[in-house]
Amino acid sequence: MFTLKKSTWTLKLFVSVVNIAAMLTLELFWLHNAYRKEYKQFLTDVDNSFDSAARKEQTYRIPISDIINPGDVTIQSCGKEEIRIIRQCPSSDTITFNNISGQSLETFIHRAFYELRQNITPLNIYCLSDLFAGELQEKNILASFSIDHFDTASGKILETTADVRNPIRPVKYAVTTNISAHTSLRANLQFANAAVFKRMTGDIVLSTGLVLIGLMSLFPILNFFRQKERKTAEINAPVANEKIFKIGCYCFNPEKNELSYSDKVIYLNKKENAILRTLCEKNGNVVERNFLLNEHWGNTGIIYSRSLDTYITKLRKYLKEDSSIQIITIKSQGYKLLFP
C-alpha cells in the first residue's frame, strides 16, 4: 500500500510539474515573440513620428506662398545634376542647387525648397521637439528624448534641446534624418520596456488566459489520481478497531483469522483464532486453563479439556517456524505465550 501511494503521488507530482512547466514555457515563448514584434513596430512608429514632425516643422516655419510672393518663382532644370530656383522680387535672385546624389526630381525639388526655407527662416528645433512630442503622444509612445542638430561630416552638434546638466542617458534608440547636404537631425530617445509592454496588453491578457485554461485542465487529472487513491485506501483500510499482533516473525490478524509469515498465510478456525488472541492479549502473562475452557467452550469437562490441548498443539505447530516463540504450559495453572 505504501509503495502504491508513493508511486501515485510521484506520478501526480510529475504530471503537475510537466504541465505547469509546459504552460509557462509556451507563455514565455508567446510573450517573447509578441514583445519582439511590438518592439519592432514601436521603433517604426518612432521613425514615422520623427519624419512627420520634421515635415510639419518645415511647413509651419514658412509656407510656400510666403516664399513665392511677392514675385514669381520659376524652376529651371539643367539636366539631372542641377536645378535653379529663380525668385523674381523687386531685385531678382537665383539660388542654384546641385543634385550630386542623383535623387529623383520630386525629392530634389523638395530638398531645394527646404534649403530655401533655411535661407529665409532658420530651423527651430524647439518647435520640432514640440511637434515630435505630439506625434509620440498620438501613437501612445511613452519616451523622453532630446533633439540634436549636427554637422553631418564632422558630427559636431550645432544646436541641441538636451539639458547638458542632465542629458538623455542611456540612449536606447536614435533616429536620424538629413535636412540638407551638410546638416542632419537626430532624436535621442530613452524609454522603459514597460512602454512596449503597455502596447501589448492584449497579448499578455490572452497568453495569461491560455495558461489559466491549461492549469485548469490539470484538475481532471488530479481528480482522477485522487479518486484512484481513495479507492485504494478504501480497499486497504483496516476494519474498525482492528488490532494486529506481531509475534516474532509472524503477523496475527484476529479480524481476518490470518497468521502470516514471510509470503505464507495460515487461516485459523474460530477456536484457534480465539485462543491465540487471548494469549496475545495477556502479553506474556499466564492464561488460566479454566478461563480458556469457560470462555470458548463454556464447560471445564474432560472432553473440552482435551480439545483445548489439541488446539494448543496446533498453535505450537503453526508457530514452529520461529523457535523463539513458545507456548509453555504452567502446571496446574494454564498457558503462557512467550516471544521476543
Explain what you see.
- By secondary structure, this protein is of the alpha+beta class.
- Among the domains are: 2-62 and 121-198; 245-338, Winged helix-like DNA-binding domain superfamily/Winged helix DNA-binding domain (Arc Repressor Mutant, subunit A, Orthogonal Bundle).
- Helix content is 51%, strand content 21%.
- It has 10 helices and 14 strands.
- It has helices spanning 2-61, 64-68, 105-120, 125-138, 193-199, 201-216, 218-236, 270-281, 289-296, 302-318, and strands spanning 72-77, 82-88, 93-98, 144-151, 157-160, 173-178, 183-190, 245-247, 250-253, 258-261, 264-267, 287-288, 326-330, 334-338.
- The strands form 4 sheets. A 4-stranded antiparallel β-sheet has the order 5-4-7-6, covered by helices on one side. A 4-stranded antiparallel β-sheet has the order 8-9-10-11, covered by helices on one side.
- Helix 1 (2-61) packs across helix 4 and helix 1 (2-61) packs antiparallel against helix 7.
- The radius of gyration is 50 Å and the shape is rod-shaped.
- The two termini are 27 Å apart.
- Mean pLDDT is 75; it is low at 1-6, 67-73, 77-83 and 87-92.
pLDDT below 50 for ≥5 consecutive residues: which ranges? 1-6, 67-73, 77-83, 87-92
Rg estimate, integer Å: 50 Å
Strand count, sense and barrel status of the largest sheet are: 4 strands, antiparallel
Fraction in helix: 40-55%
**Could you give the distance between the termini?**
27 Å
What pattern of helices and strands is seen along the backbone?
HHEEEHHEEEEHHHEEEEHEHHEE
Give, in spatial order, the strands making up the sheet with the most strands. Answer: 5-4-7-6
State the total count of DSSP E strands. Answer: 14
What proportion strand?
A: 15-25%
Total number of helices: 10
Output mean pLDDT. 75
Structural class by helix and strand composition: alpha+beta
> How would you sum up the global shape?
rod-shaped
